[in-house]
Amino acid sequence: MTEKSMKNKTENKAPNKNNNLDNKDAKEEEQVILTPWKLVKRKFKKNKVAVTGMIIFIIMVLLALLAPVLTPYDPYAMDFSQVNQAPSKTHLLGTDELGRDYLTRILYGGRVSMKVGLFAVIIEILIGALVGGLAGYYGGWVDNLLMRIVEIFMAFPFLPIAITISAVIGPEVAPEKRMYIMMFIIGLLSWGGLARMIRGQILSLREQEFIQAAKALGIRDSRIIWKHLIPNTLGYIIVSATLGMAGAIMSEAGLSFLGLGVTPPVPTWGNLVQNARDIYVLKNRVWLWLPPGVAIFFAVMSINLFGDGLRDAIDPKSK
Amino acid sequence: MGNLLEVQDLKTYFYTDDGVVKAVDGVNFSVEAGKTIGIVGESGCGKSITAMSILRLIPDPPGRIVSGKIMFNGEDLTKVSDEQIRHIRGNDISMIFQEPMTSLNPVFTVGFQIMEALMLHQNLDESEAKNKAIEMLKLVGIPRAEKIVDEYPHQLSGGMRQRVMIAMAVSCQPKLLIADEPTTALDVTIQAQILELMNDLKSKLNTSIMLITHDLGVVAEMSDHVVVMYSGKIVEDAPVDELFKNPRHPYTIGLMNSIPSLIEEGKRLESISGSVPNPLYLPKGCYFHPRCKFATDECRKGQPSLREIAPGHKVSCFRAEEVTK
Amino acid sequence: MSEVILEAQNLKKYFPIYKGAFRRRVGDVKAVDGVSLYIKEGETLGLVGESGCGKSTTGRTILRLLDATEGTVTYKGQDVLNASKDEMKKLRREMQIVFQDPYSSLNPRMTVSEIVGESLVEHGIYKKGKELDDYVVEVITKCGLAKYHINRYPHEFSGGQRQRIGIARALALNPSFIVADEPVSALDVSIQSQVINLLNDLQHERKISYLFISHDLGVVKYISHRIGVMYLGTLVELADKKSLFDNPKHPYTQALLSAIPVPDPTKKINRIILKGDIPSPANPPSGCKFHTRCMYAKDICKEQAPEFRNLGGEHFVACHFAK
Amino acid sequence: MLKYILRRLLHMIPVILIISIVIFGIVKMAPGDPVGTNLDPKATAEQRAAERARLGLDKPLPVQYWNWLTRSVKGDFGDSYIYKKPVSDVVPNFIWNSFLLNIVDFILAFLISIPIGIICAVKQYSKTDNFWTVFSIIGISMPSFFFGLLLIYIFSVKLNAFPINGMVTPGKNAAGWAHIKDVMHHIFLPALVLVIGSMASLVRYTRTSMLEVINQDYIRTARSKGLSEKVVIYKHAFRNALIPIMTIIGFWIPGLFSGAVILETTFVWPGIGNVMMDAISARDYNLIMALNMFFALLTLLGNLLADIGYALVDPRIKVE
Amino acid sequence: GCGDKNEAPAGTEGEGKVEEKEASNNPARSRDGAADTLVVGTHEAKGDFLPGYSSEVYDSYVADLVFDGLFGNDKEGNPTPSVAKDWEISEDHKTYTFHLRDDVKYTDGETLTAEDVKFTYEFLADPTYDGPRSSYAMNLVGYKEYNEGDAKELAGVKVIDDYTVAFEFQEALATNIWDCGMGILPKHIYDFEKGDTASLKQKMSDPIGSGPYILKKFEPKQYVEFEANPNYFLGAPKVSHLIMKFTTVETQMSELEKGTIDVQLRVPPKTENKEIIDGTGFININEYPDNGYSYMGWNLRDPRLADKRVRQALTYGFNRQQFVDVYYGGNAQVCNVPVSQVSWAYTTDINEYPYDPDKAIALLEEAGWKPGADGIREKDGMKLSFVWDTYTDSKYVESLIPMLKADWEKIGVKVEPNLMEFGALSEKVYDKQEFDMYNMAWSLSIDPDAFELFHSSMAVPGGFNAVGFINEENDKLLEAGRKEFDQNKRAEIYQEWCQLMNEELPYMFLTQNLSWDAINERVQNFDTSPFQDWTSRDVLLNVELAQ
Ligand SMILES: Nc1ncnc2c1ncn2[C@@H]1O[C@H](COP(=O)(O)OP(=O)(O)OP(=O)(O)O)[C@@H](O)[C@H]1O
Ligand SMILES: Nc1ncnc2c1ncn2[C@@H]1O[C@H](COP(=O)(O)OP(=O)(O)OP(=O)(O)O)[C@@H](O)[C@H]1O
Ligand SMILES: [Mg+2]
Ligand SMILES: [Mg+2]
Ligand code: NI
């Protein structure tokens, strides 16, 4: 057999995949140079599901952000001539018992829900990264002490404690401000896992030879932390942040559904779904609970998909 | 022919998202009964994949044996049923892997892991198998075998684990033992112990050994015949003495010249410039030409095929005759 | 010969082992347990030994990347282990390290120019800018890389190229002493020689001293002037290369040398096969640490640790019976 | 092993103490006076003060904490304001109802999810795998209350196939099989929500850890011995995949009970989650503290169980 | 009265017989054992089933089914004989002597005697008693001595013979008689050492009394099951099995529809609920006005609200009718006085305060409140900007908030709701008395006396006059009202008082609700009315299940 026929044969076996073999030869120098972030981006882009997740999420964020432009109604404006309207041209998702346009409330509710999710995660990350970073970098008794604290935080049963705290500090607070309370409760209760992860990350990074090399070169500690440690944990932090945000949105929705989260009249998806606890509404006014529920579902799912894709893209182990 | 195993034009490709990796690309060689064949080459040149193709252990997807024959005992292993190949694995052909630390299942005792193959292939019952396992452990020189048999891999040192791997591999007295870099992860003094053991077993059990390594020293010491691989192809194939005395492929020569212990004191090491090509972007023509001092236009265009230049000595190079140490 | 630039005396490094919730210290890993050596200007001291015997720890303790438990290190007359922060920063320019793993030793999020140039900025030798870039280019070309590599990230290089970046990083500060911690063991043979040649060339050009750590005796033999053999945290033999290879005095050295497979099928050597495994450094044997595997061991070996003696001609051995 | 468990239990004590301080602190931060809600509205200020004194509410916080702690250790968590009974009498009534729901979930989820997870890992990217991957992502992203409402809407309101709330038909007083059927009829929807939620995460988790294990060297070793694929997967791979799955059990057990707060509220299931909500809205301090301690203890116990599980399945973990 | 959330209006009074409708698809009829079992849906009872401990009305139902008091009351709210055949009141209106029937037996066979009555009141006066009914004993002679001192007996309750008992009060008040009506506990079962109510509390969830029903089973959070007492002294009830099933506002409608309950008490009077009920075709509504009202209390100590004109302006400025229309779908009434329209003390001769923003603005202007830069009215550096403390988890509040905010904004008044849990609100309002305004509701007792709520002596921390209403005329009228024993004269006094309150507006009166009991057509004679709830013997003993 000649070489040529051999090649043809292989091409037949995998026709569409290896036709680049012959014309794209050997010149590694000509390959596109990719920064690590670009590599992640490329890997991520290949993941169709994750990209879909990201797009859905971006759309939802845009819908929430552009709410004032998208809807002519005010989420708090009552119109008693339009009470409990079914979906129609003027009110795409109907109105509630006070004649407020429901689509508008869902859009604004998304703003609150996502804001709570976002800031809860920011709090979670700030504390988690700080604690994990300190524990990992300094080790010794600092690590020991901080990890004990983390252990205790991780032993807190999330929902009951969140409910308790919410009930305890909530009452003094106006509905508009309750969402800040929510952010803190969710953020404060959920940083433990992240701190642990970052600590592990830093511990293993600290043992990596490039950190040793930096020390050998006489690089300052602060620079080692900023230039060498943090950029290398950033990927994981971003992944945790996305997945954490999905969790936080879910927690907020749960608490608000129980009436212990953000309270009306401030709309959030969670307290909008609460409408359906009344069987009449559940049965006869589907538009009052289905859309906000679906919104939560889509938000959480899109973030989960996005976060999973991101993790796969960042994780060097995955192909 | 006394050939126990004959690999003919074996091609194993990996279909990845980035393209096709021709990990093994038309490999021909044979193993004689009772002899040791050494396979050397740089990391990623396809040694392990060749070995795993023989036992059909290629992860599929993404890998696939695209073509070729693997004749063993008159049967083509690429064609036999899954049931048949399972019967051959561990029984007629067994394998020792590179990493003794990760190749044993951490949750089972080493004894059990040896017994498993025995109970499967030799129809021994549990107590018989256990006795046999202890016997095998003693054979590979493990002290206190009666006790070790009930221990878990993590309780053993690297050398001990590799011995266990060997005991497991030889327990059914295979006709062919494939050893994929069995000592790379071990220290010199331990490596010496293992090599000694393998030689010992070979003479006792009369198995053929296919020894994969990148250490020319180990090859020189252990093998009867050597195959040199580069980028999924065989570049040179010769009896061991012949190869070391009279290497003909520029790659083999370069390899030998870059080993410090083969170099005269104070002399500069010769090195092969450049690095192993990315299997996704293989050069046109002879895969070695970008690093080859002897490359001509011919090498850049066409791929040389493996040809016999002396009895038993095959080289895949257009200019083999002109090339010398 | 030339003068001694670095000397370590009775260097010890113990890693404490903690256990339980209250992290009680239950023992120590005696990674380095009384090592004494010196290195002369422009000389390569090879350090061999089996995995876990403390080679890397010795190297890092000398550079004060780890805090020594005991002992002294003097570099050009200066006490390294007790140097102040500022003094240490100056010393860092003199003493550098090259690592084994070409993958984990480079920060994946920094370009070559950042990796190589970082220390120059930190030490105030150059400011960021054209001059720095020129210098970095100079260094990397010296190490066999090209100018266009300067803005690439480590993952775009092969193992050998990465190792060159690592060397360039160490070289940028123009040090006179480099600890090379297994710089070639992760590389394929054909690449190995490129790096060894580079290290050799640099030494001749700049009179750099190396502490060259490896477990490949062939490489050590090729590159070193003198060789130390370590076993379980202690040096068992230290001698001139020729003297060590031709006339090994310690039974461990003898076994080690005989264990190396020689890439020559015609030479069949008579092996000394050691029995057993290396004991754990957390629980080393009493007396002579090698006695558990030594074929010549006598009662005294179990009880008394042998002295690290000079048998003459700078050939040091730690064995009761060596002559 | 016993010693190990004992030691772990001992280690839990300081953690529990700190958690108890935190919980006590949180609850005591609460405005509202339990005395106010319980006494006759016409009670005089002195009567209120006397009642406060009787309950020990006039003492400084550390003293109150100490008293609460010492009594709690003896199993006396004080009286519930809602039920006007010792908390220790109230809680057991409901724990079993929650437990029933959770045990159904636990058994079903485990029985179904693990095999599915394994199959998905073995046949990665197959149709089955894709189906369950989609199922998982949906299950994980679906808030339990919303899913519960959907089920109620479809099955109870529209199809009238299942009751919307409660656990038994009152007054039926059925015994034996009829009773079981009655309970099963009621438990179906809430259990479905729980099971699907648990399955979603468990399938995913099993799949991931199986995938990780399947690519390990020792699996290749097992295959090279000629073992059948079934033995390789279910014996060699699964035993190893079980190790990370143990962690999820640790999170799961407490998660089950505390997650039930939302679910039980949605389905008006007479369990402790429901009681927790009542306790919160009635400011039933003693009950809130006891329940929180119960949940915290469950969390710790879950961790302990996970660790014991680890020790059981992973011989690398030294038990002494 | 006591602080009560709004969703659960208290009530009694019948609108007449349930219409007889025949519906073939009535699922309640085909329920297992439906023939002799009545299932009444109520809010959850917690298990405090002893008369002295049941703090919520749902627990009281159980206590009322199991225990008997000395007397009951008729539809008009007048006491009627029960365990007591008759009674006489002393000249000075301080001593009430009751003659007991001798045929009242507890369900364990023992006879009810005067000792049991005495025991019941000593229990309420016990120093360790921590239930919500101590006020029943508080006005009796010797209460202090027994409760705080070491008196062996409660002097105010005298056993004259086995079947005669006398109550002696410290003060002569028209309301005293109601204090004598506590459900009677059998001493032989509940007896305890003075100072040890704990032992009695243990028996709280399995009560034994003399009432028409015997408690069979209590499943917490699920239901309470009863069986008729065949030996009941007023005759055995006609329905032999009774179940109180716990429902929630969310689920009750569906349960009614599905026939899993026959009766649902206190269905919120909303159009949606009416729609469902009418939709079934087999459920009727028994509608009657609630004996209570909801209101917004404002802190009269606050100089801004101390001005009557401001209070009136705020009342004019809120469209209460619209709120009634939107929230209740018209099934409630705007109220303007602190007395229920079912009471004999009610009067219609009052200012209605219809929604009139112009008038509100005029009043505010008159009072000197001028719009500020931000549109909020201000005067002397003060702004008409209030924090309104209210409670969470209530649709009522959720609807009220936006409407009130919007209406008041139009007259230049800002209000910020501050939601808190109900217990916290109570503490803030009654104990701390720190608030601008708050909203709550009262459910009233049969007697219109509101001394506790509005007398100036109650404007102390912990007192119910939390708004700090201090008005001499008011005090005079309230004192006169409770000391007057002539019904007509009392009515006059209270009507005058109503007008005063209507003018002064110590509260912004919001609504008086309707009570709806939803009743399956198969249940007959379930004739609840404002003063007679379903446990009232007149109602209960006549309820029948149609076959
Ligand atoms: N699962 C896989 N997917 C894609 N490519 C693979 C896979 N496994 C192996 N390869 C590629 O196949 C080629 C040959 O690999 P192989 O493991 O045979 O090398 P080797 O000669 O054994 O190297 P080493 O000395 O490092 O063990 C390599 O280029 C590798 O990248
Ligand atoms: N940070 C550490 N903490 C605890 N023990 C350590 C630490 N670093 C090294 N050791 C232990 O010290 C001993 C010596 O380690 P070292 O890395 O110096 O060995 P080595 O000779 O370089 O081995 P190798 O050839 O594998 O690189 C080993 O037993 C190791 O486990
Ligand atoms: Mg390999
Ligand atoms: Mg090392
Ligand atoms: Ni051909």
Automatic annotation (TrEMBL), chain A:
<feature type="transmembrane region" description="Helical">
    <location>
        <begin position="286"/>
        <end position="307"/>
    </location>
</feature>
<dbReference type="InterPro" id="IPR050366">
    <property type="entry name" value="BP-dependent_transpt_permease"/>
</dbReference>
<keyword id="KW-0812">Transmembrane</keyword>
<feature type="transmembrane region" description="Helical">
    <location>
        <begin position="49"/>
        <end position="70"/>
    </location>
</feature>
<dbReference type="Pfam" id="PF00528">
    <property type="entry name" value="BPD_transp_1"/>
</dbReference>
<dbReference type="InterPro" id="IPR053523">
    <property type="entry name" value="Oligopeptide_permease_AppC"/>
</dbReference>
<comment type="similarity">
    <text>Belongs to the binding-protein-dependent transport system permease family.</text>
</comment>
<feature type="domain" description="ABC transmembrane type-1">
    <location>
        <begin position="110"/>
        <end position="307"/>
    </location>
</feature>
<keyword id="KW-1133">Transmembrane helix</keyword>
<feature type="region of interest" description="Disordered">
    <location>
        <begin position="1"/>
        <end position="25"/>
    </location>
</feature>
<dbReference type="InterPro" id="IPR025966">
    <property type="entry name" value="OppC_N"/>
</dbReference>
<keyword id="KW-0813">Transport</keyword>
Automatic annotation (TrEMBL), chain B:
<keyword id="KW-1278">Translocase</keyword>
<dbReference type="InterPro" id="IPR027417">
    <property type="entry name" value="P-loop_NTPase"/>
</dbReference>
<dbReference type="Pfam" id="PF08352">
    <property type="entry name" value="oligo_HPY"/>
</dbReference>
<dbReference type="InterPro" id="IPR050388">
    <property type="entry name" value="ABC_Ni/Peptide_Import"/>
</dbReference>
<keyword id="KW-0472">Membrane</keyword>
<dbReference type="InterPro" id="IPR013563">
    <property type="entry name" value="Oligopep_ABC_C"/>
</dbReference>
<dbReference type="InterPro" id="IPR003439">
    <property type="entry name" value="ABC_transporter-like_ATP-bd"/>
</dbReference>
<dbReference type="GO" id="GO:0015833">
    <property type="term" value="P:peptide transport"/>
</dbReference>
<dbReference type="GO" id="GO:0016887">
    <property type="term" value="F:ATP hydrolysis activity"/>
</dbReference>
<keyword id="KW-0067">ATP-binding</keyword>
<keyword id="KW-0547">Nucleotide-binding</keyword>
<comment type="similarity">
    <text>Belongs to the ABC transporter superfamily.</text>
</comment>
TrEMBL record, chain C:
<dbReference type="InterPro" id="IPR013563">
    <property type="entry name" value="Oligopep_ABC_C"/>
</dbReference>
<dbReference type="InterPro" id="IPR050319">
    <property type="entry name" value="ABC_transp_ATP-bind"/>
</dbReference>
<dbReference type="InterPro" id="IPR017871">
    <property type="entry name" value="ABC_transporter-like_CS"/>
</dbReference>
<feature type="domain" description="ABC transporter">
    <location>
        <begin position="6"/>
        <end position="257"/>
    </location>
</feature>
<dbReference type="Pfam" id="PF08352">
    <property type="entry name" value="oligo_HPY"/>
</dbReference>
<keyword id="KW-0067">ATP-binding</keyword>
<comment type="similarity">
    <text>Belongs to the ABC transporter superfamily.</text>
</comment>
<keyword id="KW-0547">Nucleotide-binding</keyword>
<dbReference type="InterPro" id="IPR003439">
    <property type="entry name" value="ABC_transporter-like_ATP-bd"/>
</dbReference>
<dbReference type="GO" id="GO:0016887">
    <property type="term" value="F:ATP hydrolysis activity"/>
</dbReference>
<dbReference type="GO" id="GO:0055085">
    <property type="term" value="P:transmembrane transport"/>
</dbReference>
<protein>
    <submittedName>
        <fullName>Peptide/nickel transport system ATP-binding protein</fullName>
    </submittedName>
</protein>
From TrEMBL, chain D:
<protein>
    <submittedName>
        <fullName>Peptide/nickel transport system permease protein</fullName>
    </submittedName>
</protein>
<feature type="transmembrane region" description="Helical">
    <location>
        <begin position="12"/>
        <end position="30"/>
    </location>
</feature>
<keyword id="KW-1133">Transmembrane helix</keyword>
<comment type="similarity">
    <text>Belongs to the binding-protein-dependent transport system permease family.</text>
</comment>
<feature type="transmembrane region" description="Helical">
    <location>
        <begin position="187"/>
        <end position="205"/>
    </location>
</feature>
<dbReference type="Pfam" id="PF19300">
    <property type="entry name" value="BPD_transp_1_N"/>
</dbReference>
<dbReference type="InterPro" id="IPR035906">
    <property type="entry name" value="MetI-like_sf"/>
</dbReference>
<dbReference type="GO" id="GO:0055085">
    <property type="term" value="P:transmembrane transport"/>
</dbReference>
<dbReference type="InterPro" id="IPR000515">
    <property type="entry name" value="MetI-like"/>
</dbReference>
<dbReference type="Pfam" id="PF00528">
    <property type="entry name" value="BPD_transp_1"/>
</dbReference>
<feature type="domain" description="ABC transmembrane type-1">
    <location>
        <begin position="95"/>
        <end position="306"/>
    </location>
</feature>
<feature type="transmembrane region" description="Helical">
    <location>
        <begin position="242"/>
        <end position="269"/>
    </location>
</feature>
